[in-house]
Amino acid sequence: MVLKLKWLAVALGLISITGYSQSKKPVIPKTYVAAKTTKPIVIDGDESDASWSKANWTDLFEDIENGVKPKYATKVKMLWDETNFYILAKMEEPHVWANLKQRDTIIFYNNDFEVFVDPDSDTFNYYELEINALNTAWDLFLTKPYRESDIVVANDWNIPGLKSAVKVNGTLNNPNDTDEGWVLEMAIPWAAYKTTFFDQNVPADKFWRVNFSRVNWQHSIKNGTYERKKDAEGKFLPEYNWVWSPMGVINMHEPEKWGYVYFSSKEGKDTFTIPQDEKVRWELYTLYRAQKGYFEKHKTWAKSIADLTAKSISVDGKILKPTIENHSSGYNILVKSPFSNTTFVIRQDGKIITK
């Protein structure tokens, strides 16, 4: 069943139906080089596997909006082979608890760990996976970000062949002791991200846009059982959102801000630098968000770049010269990259195409 979840997302606080406020500080996506592993990885939630010892940890997660250091540490390792994308997440947590046991329920009502993947970096047709400490999964496919009013979410989409395991360093659902935390290990088959049967989508020596989020709730204990904490009026206190790559706003569903994971097939250490054309695309999304704000205020689309920004736009010292084409159903913003001479076009729905 394909579900319309736009209004559910609003009700759950995932997005706001008005306003496009963003961080005043620039959001620079994180990068990570995932090495190729030649040895099988046993998915058991144990980080002592020899293959993981050769992988680096990411930076510690940050608050999703303001970059403040979270109360508890979270970090990730990544590896890959011809079959799977391997992820190891380690979360500090003195009270490990979970009570959702049915797949595809709203897992972030528990403390959870979340994976977001956009293979082609166009912000459309991306994937989300949430898992709690009971190893209960919610996997879904999104045709567009929530910011588009006609969003349709395939909530019944499942990752075929997903393997995941949780190891609790302590005792699950026991409020009488203090835990160290929990480790989540998973193998996501590349085949889950295929667009056609014959799609050869293993990203060797390529990057995908990826981000990770950890949802953590304040809790109370009632009759020896953990539950989300409520305020004096009986409303649940807001959750903490801690992420690998900063968003600058409380919304994971802006894929253009996700991190860059480069899947290296090189033996030994490898490096990755964000391509300059990616930075050109970032500027198009800044203009796209400005157009959203302009429309909200004026009930019509801006007809010139000067209506959206008074500043010149540059990338690595090169001036960009974007233009707007208005049409009956919206607009296109076009810009020619000074680095590759590729013309990028962002449409009113936020999708970027190339000419």
Automatic annotation (TrEMBL):
Pfam families: CBM9_1. The keyword Transcription regulation does not apply. Residues 43-194 form the Carbohydrate-binding domain. One of its GO terms (molecular function) is hydrolase activity, hydrolyzing O-glycosyl compounds. PANTHER family: CARBOHYDRATE-BINDING DOMAIN-CONTAINING PROTEIN, SIMILAR TO POLYHYDROXYALKANOATE DEPOLYMERASE. Residues 1-23 form the signal peptide. GO terms for biological process: carbohydrate catabolic process. Keywords: Signal. This is Carbohydrate-binding family 9-like protein. Coiled coil: none annotated. InterPro entries: Carb-bd_dom_fam9 (IPR010502).
